[in-house]
Write a structure and sequence with these properties.
Helix content: 40-55%
Largest sheet: 8 strands, mixed
Structural class: alpha/beta
Distance between the termini: 27 Å
Low-confidence stretches: none
Bound molecules: NADPH dihydro-nicotinamide-adenine-dinucleotide phosphate
Length: 246
């Protein structure tokens, strides 16, 4: 459910899953705004996308810089008058590598920096862009979570993530999931849908070379949730169309 009139903003779209999501949405005819904290990296990515026929435009967006929120909202409002899709894709994984990532020794600074990007920035940027999303005929918000944000799976011995405990990252994504639930509750009855996505374990800078999914598959969940039809879900947590336990 997306066409040539659809406008999408993707944060952290200069590389990784964000860039691939921009490519796939662009191929559906969506105009993609390539959010990048360093504009030159966004310009480079947008140029590559334009080279394959995508209507891509770079936009400077450091999700940690509140000054950028207003500037981005103003630029989108001026050019398009609305925003159809917001993909909160930018994220960080700052926990020390295993085996040194114990919950009991996670530095406060790591916790705060992780929450700043993965949670507080998502909430603040979404709040700033909601007026433009409300002007869309079919607003869609996708929050890039992770299966590592699942409290149920972390508490279940033998689950896929039971022994993969990265405290700061996991709790930031659990908080993000809670934002999805709360915002979806508030927006019920509007044209806006908001969902959490687990992309899979994807070969990116964050996912590492040992990851099992290629980028093309890693962007599919974001694209699906960004293009949900009117009868699609809101307030859910998904991977490739399957519901995940919170
Ligand atoms: P990458 O590390 O490859 O890319 C992260 C992106 O986020 C980069 O574009 C980076 O920009 C951007 N970013 C980080 N901080 C900021 C900031 N302050 N402002 C703007 N952009 C910022 O990660 P992935 O593509 O793998 O991850 C994308 C999302 O998917 C993340 O939210 C991640 O948590 C989630 N995810 C990924 C998984 C995986 O296996 N890869 C698994 C589960 C979830 P820059 O290039 O400037 O650093």
């Amino acid at each position: 459910m997306a066409d040539a009139n659809t406008v999408a903003l993707i944060t952290g779209a200069n590389k990784g899953i964000g860039l691939e999501t921009a490519r796939q949405l662009g191929k559906l005819g969506v105009t993609v705004l390539v959010g990048s904290r360093v504009l030159a990296r966004g310009e480079e990515a947008a140029e590559v996308l334009r080279g394959i026929g995508v209507d891509a435009r770079a936009i400077k967006l450091d999700v940690l810089d509140p000054a950028d929120y207003g500037a981005v909202a103003e630029a989108i409002g001026k050019e398009f008058g609305r925003l159809d899709i917001l993909i909160n894709n930018a994220g960080v994984l700052l926990d020390p590598d295993r085996p040194n990532n114990h919950t009991s020794t996670t530095p406060q600074e790591v916790l705060r920096d992780t929450f700043d990007t993965n949670f507080f920035a998502v909430v603040a940027l979404t709040q700033a862009l909601l007026p433009l999303l409300r002007k869309s005929e079919a607003g869609r918000i996708v929050n890039l979570s992770s299966i590592l944000g699942s409290l149920t799976l972390h508490a279940t011995k033998g689950s896929y993530v039971y022994d993969a405990k990265t405290f700061a990252y996991d709790t930031s994504k659990a908080a993000l999931n809670s934002f999805t639930i709360h915002l979806a509750h508030e927006l019920a009855g509007t044209k806006i849908k908001v969902n959490s996505a687990h992309p899979g374990w994807v070969k990116t800078e964050m996912g590492g070379a040992g990851a099992v999914m290629e980028l093309a598959d890693g962007a599919k969940t974001s694209v699906q949730l960004a293009t949900l039809g009117e009868d699609g879900p809101s307030g859910g947590y998904f991977h490739m169309g399957e519901s995940l336990p919170w």
